Amino acid sequence: MPKPLALVTRMDAATEALWRETLADALPEETIIAFRDMSAEQRLQAEVAIVANPDPADVAQLPNIGWIHSLWAGVERLVAELGPEAAPIVRLVDPELARVMAEAVLAWTYYLHRDMPAYRAAQEKADWAPRDYRHPRDVTVGLLGLGELGKAAADRLKGAGFNVMGWSRSPKVFGTIETVSGEGGFDRILGVADILVCLMPLTAETRGMLDARRFAAMKPGAAIINFARGPIIVDADLIAALDAGHLSHAVLDVFAQEPLPAPSPFWAHPAITVLPHISGPTDRFTAAGIVAANIRQWRQTGQLPKTIDIKAGY
To answer: Known catalytic residues?
Structure first.
């Protein structure tokens, strides 16, 4: 009988129970036990921890786990809280998540492209104010980050007719999408993008990377969408760029503190659209299937799935 798998989360009990049930359906040959329900002996026996933003103190009570499988695609919090001595970490790589994120990128790009914020403001003033149409081919969407999410978003935007450019830290080739890299490439994408979409992981290098200097380098009147992590943007610098009219609008789905506190100036700012972190929700069923496949493969071969680079943070 395989040793138990520990499910370690900070979810409420009802949500965690749904995840445990879904994972159990996907892995009927395994015994999956929520950490809170494990005996001391079971905690010693556990070989793998399936986690969702776990309490590090709970993970520390699983001394014999060989690796950790995250239920989320983003792992920066996990890395920061568990530290460099943590067991190898596998993040969720789910094509369904990439599809949903690409859908959100396209939807909110259209929101900006078709001047929805301006029409909402006009409605509030009872102002009948039609605006000139811009063809997508005349709009450049710049993507910061060309991982699985960025590539899916680039495909979706290109298919909708937008002019798409992608940036990554190191050179990448991606079909017919123009790609740039490094500091020179960063300056170039900032200077040409009408809409800048951030899909970068949060690391020591990306924290605060979109600051006053970067905003000043952006095309006058450009807009920004942040579907990555809140601390990548320096909040005060973004507000200053919007107040000065250099940037036209920001769609923000992620924040340094979530839920976004009521006193935040983002809520009432006329040039900011606040979303409650909904751009890339994890699908419980597809995620469970991927976790199941990875664990099954490990049982059969002894080989770990691809693990993250702890030093890089993703």
So the answer is: 229, 277
